[in-house]
Amino acid sequence: MEVRIELKPGVMDPEAESVEKSLALLGLTSVPHVTTARIYDLEFHGVSISEARQLADEAVERLLANPVIHRVTVRRGPT
Amino acid sequence: MEVRIELKPGVMDPEAESVEKSLALLGLTSVPHVTTARIYDLEFHGVSISEARQLADEAVERLLANPVIHRVTVRRGPT
Predict the structure, then answer these.
(1) B-chain residues near A40 (CB < 8 A)
(2) Which domains does chain B have, with CATH numbers?
(3) Residues B19-75: pLDDT tens digits?
(4) CB pairs below 8 Å between A and B: how many?
(5) Which terminal residue of chain B has fewer beta carbons within 10 Å of its beta carbon, N or C?
(6) pLDDT tens digits, residue range A11-55?
């Protein structure tokens, strides 16, 4: 299962800002708007797809994400 | 353009190890093998797709990735 953790809109993303600034300083001809995300790829063994999804949801809720600032997507993956 | 940066096989991933240990401590009924990746979503404006890809490749090479330890995929996205 691939867990993708992004910041909610409006939450500061200092790493993304720093990337934008650095790309501008490097003289890139067009500087993009940057956003970041963290991927956790959880590879379960000996469990069904639906159990794996449930366990991934549990991992997100209890450990990986903070619902106040994070938007989370869980999908079968990685692609 | 979505830039996905993973660690090459054999490179230590302490964050992933820490997630595995924490999930075990939390008593998850099945503990997955965990790998992590970093996503940079680069949103270019006023450039063609092929220019955007070229600029993303340049950003990867000059700033975002270290070819010694990172495996990089660039694709149109996010999905």
Answers:
(1) 16, 19, 34-36
(2) 2-75 (3.30.1280.10)
(3) 999 999 999 999 999 999 999 999 999 999 999 999 999 999 999 999 999 999 999
(4) 99
(5) C
(6) 999 999 999 999 999 999 999 999 999 999 999 999 999 999 999
Smallest CA-to-CA distance from A35 within A64, A5, A60 is with A5
Q: Please report how many Cα atoms fall inside a 13 Å half-sphere around the Cα of residue A66, on the Cβ side.
A: 5
The answer to whether the Cβ–Cβ distance between A1 and B33 falls below 8 Å is no
Say whether pTM exceeds 0.90: yes
Q: Three-state SS string across B26-53, please?
A: CCCCCCCEEEEEEEEEEECCCCCHHHHH
* Residues written for chain A: 79
Give CA–CA dist B10/B71, Å, rounded: 12
- For chain B positions 7-26, those within 8 Å of chain A (CB to CB) are 16, 19, 22-23, 26
Residue A35 and residue B75: Cα distance in Å, rounded? 15
ipTM over 0.90: yes
Residue B77 has pLDDT above 90, yes or no: no
Q: How far apart are CA A33 and CA B45, in angstroms?
A: 8
